[in-house]
Each structure stands twice: as C-alpha cells, then as structure tokens.
Amino acid sequence: MASLVVVQHKQPSSAVLPSSFSDFNGARLTASVQYKRKLWQPKGALHVTASSAKKILIMGGTRFIGVFLSRLLVKEGHQVTLFTRGKAPITQQLPGESEADFADFSSKILHLKGDRKDFEFVKSSLSAEGFDVVYDINGREALEVEPILDALPSLEQYIYCSSAGVYLKTDYLPHFEVDAVDPKSRHKGKLETESLLESRGVNYTSLRPVYIYGPLNYNPVEEWFFHRLKAGRPIPIPNSGIQVTQLGHVKDLARAFVQVLGNEKASKQIFNISGEKYVTFDGLAKACAKAAGFPEPEIIHFNPKEFDFGKKKPFPFRDQHFFTSIEKAKSLLGWKPEFDLVEGLADSYNLDFGRGTFRKEADFETDDIILGKSLVLQS
Amino acid sequence: MKKPPFNRFSEIVSAGGATVWGDPADIGKVLEGKEFDVVLDNNGKDLDAVRPVADWAKSSGAKQFLFISSAGIYKPTDEPPHVEGELVKADAGHVGVEKYISEIFEIWSAFRPQYMIGSGNNKDCEEWFFDRIVRGRPVPIPGSGMQLTNIAHVRDLSSMLTLAVENPAAAGGNIFNCVSDRAVTLNGMAKLCAQAAGLPVEIVNYDPKAVGVDAKKAFPFRNMHFYAEPRAAKEILGWSGTTNLPEDLKERFNEYVKIGRDKKEIKFELDDKILESLKVPVAV
C-alpha cells in the first residue's frame, strides 16, 4: 500500500541563497589542512558506490532528519518508502530547493501510511512489502522494533537513530561509545532498543547524535537563541555559562546515515555523530549572534535554584557538560562533519528562522521571571 | 642534582642510556664530536634557550628535531578542544621556537603537553589534592569547578614521543597535542583523587576576586577551560592513549603514602585565607 502526497509549501519570498537546499554534499570550505602527511588514510567513499539500489523503509522521515536523509537516499537511486501516520505532509518543498529537485523527489518517494504502535499492522504491511534496509529515525521503545524485525527476516541492515542521551553523566569526558550508559536515563528506550538489536543478531548500526540543529529543527535549540536575538533581549544562561555541549548539523547527520548503508565497517556498531568542536553555553549564544548577523548579545547568568519556573524550562540544554568523541565514526567510516558551528548556524538561520519560519512561538515567560528578580549572578 | 626527581637520572644510565651535564647554551662544546640522529629539547621555553641546541643539532647532522612546547600557547576559545593548527599566542616563547625549528629542520615536530602525573614528576599535580584530602581539609577550587583540563599519565606522553621517533616521515612537519584523550573537570579531579585515596572530600568553590586571592598562586591549574585533544597523534601516528585517571590515581596515591608525604607538615596559608573569608570551618 503506497500512496503519494505532494504538498506545495508556500514560502515568503526571499533572496536567492548561494547554497541550494537539496545539494549539501560537500560544497564547503573545509578547515585549512592541519596535517601534512598521514600514516594511514581512513577508508570510506563519500558516496554509496558499489551497493545496488536498495528497497529502503524509513520509520518517520517527514519531520527533520528524515527529510534530508530521504532526499540523499533517493538521489543515490534507492527506492525509499516513508512509514508515517500521514499527519504531516509526506513531502514539503524546502527553502532553497528548486522546483525541479522537489518535483523529482516527490515523484519518487513512497508512503506507507500507518501507526507504528499498531504492531500487527506493522508486521503485516512490512512483510507484505519486504524491505532490504530499515532506517528507524523515530523509534523510542524496543517494543516498537520487534514487529519490524519479525516482519523482515532477511533484513540486510537495521539503522537506528539512537541518542547520546544514553550516556551516564560524568566529569571525565568526552563520551566514547564504550563508555558507561545510564539505564535510568530519559532515553532508556533507546538503550533497550540497541540491546534488542544486539541480542536479535540482526545486522544493525546505531547512531548517537548529541544536539542536532539545522533548518526545520523542531527542537528549540538554535531557535531559542534566535528568538531572543531578534527581540533584542538578553540571553539568560544558567550558572557559569562554561558548560560545554556539542551541536551537530542535521545535514552532516544525514550524510552519516548514508555512509553506514551497506558498510561492513558499520555492522553491529554504535557511532557518536556530532560536530568536530564542542562549545560553551556562552559561546553558543555568541555563535548564534554571529551566524545571524546580530551584535554580540548581553548574557545574564542566573542560578536556576533561586527561581520557580513551574513546568517551563528556562534553557533548552542540559545543565551539565555533554559532548562526545566522534573519532570512531571518522576513522572507521571516513565520515566527517562539513559544517563548523557558525557556518552551520548560518545555514539554519538563512534557510529557516531568517526567513520568518520557526516551530515554536517566542515565549519569554521564564526570561522575565529571571530578569524581573534583582538577584542575578553577574560574572 | 641531589633532589628528586633529578637524583633519579641514574635510572636512565641503568637502563642503558647515558647522561651528560652542561649548559644548553654551550651544547656544541659539551658534545663536541658527537653525532645524533634525533635531538629532543625538553628544556627550553623560548628561542634564547633552544636556538643553541637547534643550531648545534642541525650543524652536527641530526636529522630529526623534537621540541616539547606547550598547549598553553593556544588562544582561549569558546569552542573547545584546542586542536592542532588553531590559533596560538604569537608572542609566546614556545611559538617562536616552533617557528624556528620548522624553518631549519625538514623533520621537526612540536609536542604541546598540558598537565601530567607519574612517578618522578617535578611539579605537583595530584599531590595538591592529596595534600588536602588526606589531612581532612576542604579543597578550595576557584570558579565553578566545571573548568575542563587534561591530565595525562606520563606514559602517554612518552609513548607519543617514541612513536614520533620511530616514524619520522609521518611525524615530520607536524604539531601534536601531547595529552590524554579525555578531559576532567577541576571538581571532578578532586573527586577522583578522593576516590583513589578511599577518603571523603569537601570541595569549596570560590570566587578569587571576591576573596582577594590570586588564583594562580592558590591553585595549580588554570582557572578556565584548558583542554586540548590529541587528534594529530591519533590520526597521523596511530597513537592511542592509556591514561585512566580512576586507576592511575590509585597508584599515585600509593606512592604518595609510601614516600611519607601524607605525614609531612604543610602550611595552608592561602587555603586558610580563602576558607576564612567564606566562613568554612576547618577540622583540626
């Protein structure tokens, strides 16, 4: 059962951008060559080469990561089906994407409408279709994965979008893939899924992103800063502001997902996927301003314990150090991020927020609570 | 050379090496007639100190020159870690040396270390924490304690240098952050030291300005993120780190006790000043 829905998304007119939205495979000014000679060269082609066209199922694929991933896969010549409830449009023309590219993509992408929590339907529809590879982009619980595995006994690869949120908090960073995980974390469903995949003996690959950013981000990461910068408001940052986090551009993540397809080096492996450099909270505020062309922001540090924010979160990041090493992916897969932070934030701004689009309306309630109270930490 | 660790240089001789004493400025005279394949300067901090050594090495036919520089030359950044190739402070002494040796040697390498632990260290590192933990004293740490630093076991530094000597073609022309592959927070280091000692720890974070102390005098680590990663060594030399602070600090604590430093009389004047200003009691 496949249906195709084509949606024309009306965008406000905007200046032509130098980079095409759908073409993001490497037209980048990379950092200057740091190393003269290498003892060994990491292997891994930039594009999927030898593998023939696969029949690919993406669980999800209409919101953020999948939007970019599905385009790359279709371009590579694979047959791609999106399994979604159909609540969001199956395709949307992306800012900067040409009519021709969008039409081509729309004509090729397939849709399997269903609720992945309806395990019987998942099992029957998937086994009826048969797929070579499954990309599970929106899976949260191990229970949801079982019917997929049951339906596809000859599955070549199960590629899972996990999360670096599974790592146990530590003072000794970065998180490497071998590090301790937290069975009590908010992301324990991801952990349980990884364990299930391991125990079922299926050829799986799990990617653990940190904070993902980029155009169409539905998580208020860069958007949170952009709202405040646009409003000319100070940026309230908890405690010292030197907490170190890590952002990874969604397009780099999509490329990593493509890089592991049919890649024997990725078989039964877990990879952290994020940016090359980490960033402090204060630094991130400044980077957002720089990327969007705003003046350097006023940063106010506050002690969260001194306020009652009710159910609202005063800041979108975990108040701790949180960053991973991506060297396993770099050395085993030959993948590396193409966006550095300011470039990536500029890409997000130019193609999304800067055009007047965003997911969540500005909400400065917690900011005003902080600013209203005279007791703020200054340094 | 009667004080440790310098009185341990006999260990080099027992291991089959040789030691020669002299002023680096006179190295040409001291080592007259001698030739070496590789020269490593682990002493000089600026061109005045290193130039005589580098010039002599060149003229006496040494093919490879290695210099122990410092990760302290990196410019502070909002985007850690410090990665080889990034901006350094142009006026730093070590930078002048790196530039000079890159000009006169074909096969040159610079190694930029941070902090290290290990037997024979002539600079306090973990000892600073042990001194307080073992005496049941609070550990005063400036700022939030979230500052990241890199503390490597000396065997990681030695293995990196060794790889460079063994692979001159790969190492030549490159800069290497000579550090472990993990960072630790300052508060985290205090906790790890306490765990290694099997003792509790009371960490007191303070604002040096408010208290009126110079953090540089009161605390042996930089009061800011100071965090480099050994990316070049991993990618170019195929080096891998083995520092495991939780385990390594246990061995360090054992030696700390063995040499009797836990019983040593130590004055904690700056600590007392800090704690008094914060009204933190110190158990006698």
From TrEMBL, chain A:
It comes from the Eukaryota. It holds the Pfam family Epimerase. Gene3D superfamilies: NAD(P)-binding Rossmann-like Domain. Transmembrane segments: none annotated. This is Chloroplast stem-loop binding protein of 41 kDa b. PANTHER family: CHLOROPLAST STEM-LOOP BINDING PROTEIN OF 41 KDA B, CHLOROPLASTIC, UDP-GLUCOSE 4-EPIMERASE. InterPro entries: Epimerase_deHydtase, NAD(P)-bd_dom_sf. It comes from Abeliophyllum distichum. Residues 56-273 form the NAD-dependent epimerase/dehydratase domain. Signal peptide: none annotated. SUPFAM superfamilies: NAD(P)-binding Rossmann-fold domains (SSF51735).
Automatic annotation (TrEMBL), chain B:
Residues 47-178 form the NAD-dependent epimerase/dehydratase domain. It comes from the Eukaryota. InterPro entries: Epimerase_deHydtase (IPR001509), NAD(P)-bd_dom_sf (IPR036291). This is Chloroplast stem-loop binding protein of 41 kDa a. It comes from Abeliophyllum distichum.
